[in-house]
Amino acid sequence: MTPNLLTVGRIACIPVLVAMFYLEGDWARWTACFLFAAAATTDYVDGYLARNWQQESLLGRWLDPVADKLLVGAAVLMLVGSDQAPLLPSLIIVLREITVSGLREYMAEVSVGLPVSRLAKWKTAVQMTAIAFLLVGSAGPAWLPVEQIGWWGLWAAALLTLVTGWDYLQAGLRHMLQEPPAGGQVAGRRAGAGS
User: Fold this and answer.
1) What is the DSSP code (8-state) at residue 140?
2) CB-CB contact of 138 with 24 (8 Å)
């Protein structure tokens, strides 16, 4: 139950994150960064706890990737909308998330898993770090090029996004191009497998 509560907490912090982003003052930017970083950290923690405490559930398998996409989507949209993040890599990241979600939904329908690759985990880490830097933005210390680190980090995440997205797409296409099962029907959908 605790892992799912962490996931729900990640979603619940999004409105607060949005409010902090639009408030004036450096304290609000740092608070937004802290909230985002804390929420991003729970992504690792809830999965770790669910596996080690053997509390994996259908709800958790569905809700975890949804929470990630809502968190990243909200942050990226705010940053791009206020000209504090580059549009092209942000667009690549959002479109990849939509594509992979649809692909996972399809793969669940044919009872084939699409495991997260090691490179995809690195992509997520780079992406979350870049967004955290961009949320701090001009409120960061003068001696550190916070905004530039965020911009270049988001470009790096976008490149990793293209590579991992292509890997997932190839895995999906291999199954799509195979002959359908006997009788021309696909296996029933596995609840909670899509993201």
Assistant:
1) S
2) no
Phi, psi (degrees; rounded to nearest 5) at 86: -70, 140
CB 96, CB 165: distance < 8 Å: yes
CB 29 within 8 A of CB 68: no
Nearest-angstrom CA–CA distance, 158 and 28: 27
Contact between 118 and 160 under an 8 Å Cβ cutoff? The reply is no
Find out whether 154 and 85 touch, Cβ atoms under 8 Å. yes
Neighbours of 56 (CB within 10 A): 15
Instruction: Give this prediction's pTM.
Output: 0.81
Residues 6+ away with beta carbon under 8 Å from 38 = 13
3-state secondary structure of 73: helix
Contact 29, 146 (CB under 8 A): no
- Sequence-distant (6+) residues with CB within 8 A of 136 are 29, 30, 32, 33, 146, 150
Query: Could you read off the pLDDT of 102-161 as tens digits, one per residue?
Result: 777 767 666 666 666 788 888 889 999 999 999 999 999 999 999 999 999 999 999 999
